[in-house]
Amino acid sequence: MSAKASGVRSLKLDIRKLKILTAIVETYIETGEPVSSKMLTEKLGLQVSSATIRNDMAALFEMGLLEQPHTSAGRVPSHLGYRIYVDQLMRCEPLSDEERREIDALFNVRDPDPDKLLEDAAEALADYTNCATVSTTITPRTVQVKRIEIVPAGARTVVVLVIATNGVIKNKVCRVDFRLTNELVGFLNQFANGRLVGKPVSEISQYYVNSIAVTLGEYSAPFVPVLATIYELCREISEGQFYTSGGANLLGYKEFGDIARELLLTMNSRSDLLGVLASRDDAVFISIGKENSKSELADTSVVVTHYKIGEQNSGAIGVIGPVRMDYAKIIPHLEYFSQTLGKLLAETFEQE
């Protein structure tokens, strides 16, 4: 729960008002249309008059839990109303066996490569929820270089692989200015592994790599491209992976008509979205509307969960959609989705 939600505890709502608020939220999520007292009377079947329900709706409006759009006779939930619903009233049903099979099937044809699996996960979840999604890895500062492999690919070309202790493998082709021999390749492998294995990837800076090169003395210049490539690969591992998908799905919601451009720009900004995802430690974190730190997301809700590889938080996957998203449906789906993703990534890393 967001820290900004603490103020809702001071609101006192009787059982009938809670039922009315729940019905308004769930009806608006389903229809996207303002909810009238007549609709509530028919939906709830309460043994009270329409006038009583109107009075309760007016009280909820005065508390800031409902809003009246334009001149409509109906009401819609406010962001605060959604917060009370999510924290106190919502009931998430466990996934059925069929729903679990549907999610499992999304991964059955996925590429076993870890990076591709994360990218595919974002795409599959966007298709499944009809929202925008983001998936990212989190690289703990304790992750170290496990092994470096420099493999000749031509007379003056090598493939450099960096393997980290969290199972991530990065590789890049590097061209050198000298003709390769088995002796030189052997020396490069021995030198790189001797200096970098066991070193945290987050500490392998450009300065550190330059200081290693200096120890080679007059022979350092030819090897600089290889060391620079190793640095780039370590930086990529340290930064983690980041994928988004489904930004165009947001264009299908009428509430985003005036802010579509700003939303799409935010969806393409790694720094903006990492700020939304990276600092959350909750098993499931929900940020509703104006609770979002980014003003561009003030009319959206963000639901984030972490996936684990073993016992370690290894990344986050989130859904970004309208404030009226179906939280009770999306949350259990997202939780199972992230559990499945973590399990598959763990299996992939074990195979490697």
Automatic annotation (TrEMBL):
Q: InterPro entries recorded for this chain?
A: GAF-like_dom_sf, HrcA, HrcA_C, WH-like_DNA-bd_sf, WH_DNA-bd_sf, WHTH_transcript_rep_HrcA_IDD
Where does the Heat-inducible transcription repressor HrcA C-terminal domain start and stop, copy by copy?
115-331
Pfam families noted in UniProt: HrcA
Q: Keyword Transcription regulation on this protein?
A: yes
* SUPFAM superfamilies for this protein: GAF domain-like, Winged helix' DNA-binding domain
The terms under GO molecular function for this entry are: DNA binding
The cross-references to Gene3D superfamilies, in alphabetical order and at most eight, read:
3.30.450.40, Heat-inducible transcription repressor hrca homolog, domain 3, Winged helix-like DNA-binding domain superfamily/Winged helix DNA-binding domain
Record-level GO BP terms = negative regulation of DNA-templated transcription
Keyword entries, A-Z: Repressor, Stress response, Transcription, Transcription regulation
What is the superkingdom listed in this entry's lineage? Answer: Bacteria
Q: Which family does it belong to?
A: Belongs to the HrcA family.
Against HAMAP family, the record matches this protein to:
HrcA (MF_00081)
**Cited PANTHER family:** HEAT-INDUCIBLE TRANSCRIPTION REPRESSOR HRCA
Its biological purpose is as follows:
Negative regulator of class I heat shock genes (grpE-dnaK-dnaJ and groELS operons). Prevents heat-shock induction of these operons.
Q: What is this protein called?
A: Heat-inducible transcription repressor HrcA
Organism whose genome encodes this protein: Anaerotruncus colihominis DSM 17241
Which gene specifies this protein's sequence? hrcA
